Automatic annotation (TrEMBL):
Domain spans labelled Hikeshi-like N-terminal: 17-123
Signal peptide interval: none
Cellular component GO terms, alphabetical: cytosol; nucleus
Protein's recorded name: Uncharacterized protein LOC111442215 isoform X5
Length: 155
């Protein structure tokens, strides 16, 4: 179905490294993979395997969840884009300790993968779009671009 690689951190892993929640959802517990150092894993390459046929109107969406937070969409792969290197924008730790019952399981970060309708996804690579947006804001704030284009070209 799919595989993942954490650049400079892992060998390729197939779907068997994930816990299957149902027919279209999988979760990788980062605690078993890297312990509490999940926030040091900044990129993930996800790819479709050759024998997997994803319908053209579907995508494999990737989400991250840090302890005590909601899942955050990172990007997706499709038949037209069968692999992607996605940035994992783990939120900064809040610095607040979470009180938990002593008999509860330890809270860990997770990476979720799910089959979703392509039309329902906001973007295939959220982080890349945010980088482009930041660059555009920097260019817009640059003094050299506050003059008329004809002035810039004639200098």
């Amino acid at each position: 179905m799919f595989g993942v690689v954490f650049p400079n951190r892992s060998f390729p892993m197939d779907i068997s490294a994930f816990s299957q929640i149902d027919t279209s959802h999988w979760v990788l517990d980062m605690n078993t993979f890297v312990g509490e150092a999940y926030d040091q894993i900044r990129e993930m390459c996800i790819f479709l395997l050759n024998n997997f046929t994803l319908p053209p109107d579907k995508a494999l969406a990737v989400y991250i969840q840090s302890p005590g937070s909601q899942f955050l969409f990172c990007g997706a792969v499709t038949l037209a884009r069968p692999s992607a290197v996605l940035t994992l924008p783990w939120p900064e730790p809040s610095g607040q300790m979470q009180l938990m019952p002593t008999d509860s399981a330890p809270v860990s970060a997770k990476i979720g993968v799910s089959v979703e309708d392509l039309a329902s996804l906001q973007s295939l690579d959220v982080t890349a779009e945010k980088r482009i947006e930041r660059l555009a804001l920097k260019v817009d704030g640059s003094r050299s671009f506050r003059r008329k284009p004809s002035v810039i070209l004639n200098t």
